[in-house]
């Protein structure tokens, strides 16, 4: 999916992860100091390869690489909430989707890209007609990302204890999102 965000002035692209094309990139990103505390996937390459292969085989989620002006810079996981552990923490609906993300290269941090990228991915997930809610569960320590989720339209629900973190469960309702982003036409999408 490709789109141009008029507000941010960048072209964004989300494409699905491919094991051979993205293994070394994602392995490197998961070894960055700003990523390790929140993802804990800084495995040796062979173990990371097995991990990524397993993720790619899971039909309940889709993995994406986010590009800015043609440069790969972020990793995204979208998942069906009913098939995820998060379903144990709220009244999940059949078509709820969830989202995880990270920025890989440090040079993209602090550039104001998180909100337009999250906004684009959220709009993309809402293209599924049955999806009325997008779920996020950022690490409670990740205050910057929690702030970005809130700016996008995600509302805090409650703190939850997941196997790998204490998280803030957040929901973005379809109505809230499109009310906040009335000019969502700025997203010109093409599937790639």
Q: What portion of residues is helical?
A: 25-40%
The CATH architecture assignment turns out to be 3-Layer(aba) Sandwich
Judging from the principal axes of the Cα atoms, what is the shape?
A: globular
Distance N terminus to C terminus? 5 Å
Q: Gyration radius, to the nearest Å?
A: 16 Å
Unreliable residue stretches: 185-192
What is the level 1 CATH name?
Alpha Beta
Q: Which strand-content bin applies to the residues?
A: 25-35%
Total of domains: 1
Question: CATH homologous superfamily - what is it?
Answer: Gcn5-related N-acetyltransferase (GNAT)
Quaternary state, please?
single chain
Question: Within the largest sheet, what's the order of strands?
Answer: 1-2-3-4-5-6-8-7
Number of strands: 8
In N-to-C order, the SSE pattern is: EEHHHEEEHEHEEH
Biggest sheet details: 8 strands, mixed
**Structural class label:** alpha+beta
Using the coordinates shown, work out and report the CATH topology: Aminopeptidase
Mean pLDDT, rounded to whole units? Answer: 91
- Number of continuous helical runs: 6
Pathway: Siderophore biosynthesis
Pfam families: Acetyltransf_8
Protein name: Lysine N-acyltransferase MbtK
GO molecular function, one term: N-acyltransferase activity
